[in-house]
Amino acid sequence: MTTSNLNIGVVGAGVMGSGHLEYLSQEVSGVTVAAVAEPDQALRRSVLEQWGIACAEFGALEEMLDGAELDGVVIASPDRFHAESIKLCLSRGMPALCEKPLAQTLQDGEELAELAQVSLSETGRPLIHLGFMRRFDPPFVEVKKLIQSGDLGSVLYINASTRNVASPGITSDELLTNIAIHEVDTLRWLLEDEWAKLSVLSGRPTSAAPENTRDPIVLTGTTEAGVMIVADIFANNSYGYDVRCELTFERGVVRVGIWGDVSIVQNHEHPAHPAFALGENWIARFRQAYIDELKAWTNTLRGIPSTELATIDDGLRALQVLNWVV
pTM of the full predicted structure? Predict the structure, then answer.
């Protein structure tokens, strides 16, 4: 068990990498950002300067693993690099928290799951966790407790939305593996239930979508317990970051609003809601979720396991469900 200060390396200095660098350096105690791997030197140094971090700098993950003494790595590179980065960390016995998705193809996900199983048998603990941060979002945690309490009866129907402002260059497949995958994992975790069916509807694309890209799309499905689910996914909505979830129970409705507000409609009463501004992306909305996720992950490096962190098996299950419609 590691009880002293943890030396963490971060891969990537884009939106997600910058976020993790901020949270690790300013919000998570007992942690030092010891290294960053980012091929764009100007971006790397700009982000490090922004958050006042002085650390070793590398152009690639392999160079960082060779040149720095680390207790763990956060992988926040583009999706297409996730599989190879996880393979490299597994081969070095390096614990890592990798942003979702596990991989962009089911074949790569299955290979990683096999490698992780070998690693687990050798080390006795999972080395890789995945960044499905909504599992740590305080409003979703509150709703999960409400579901478990049974106070409103069973969940019958869920309607959800995830609408990004802009996603330059995104493909139709990436609408599923990069955005819709949140709904697939979050609702599975929230309900403690498995998906039984999933379909995708697409219609008129927005003019903001890249050519030949289905955007928006609508997921429709059911779980093994019979919960009906409809979720709309926009990669380019133009009006502001918009994420919502409404759960209809037997005896009421629970809504998780755009800024994480939780409202309960029951007994013929609907709570009022003030006007508010929308954000540019998901960082502000899920800031606390990312911080709590990093705290849980760094605690695993100290020998304190987490039952909420997503595993490679969770990442594989999400890819398997999405593969029904890819």
Answer: 0.94
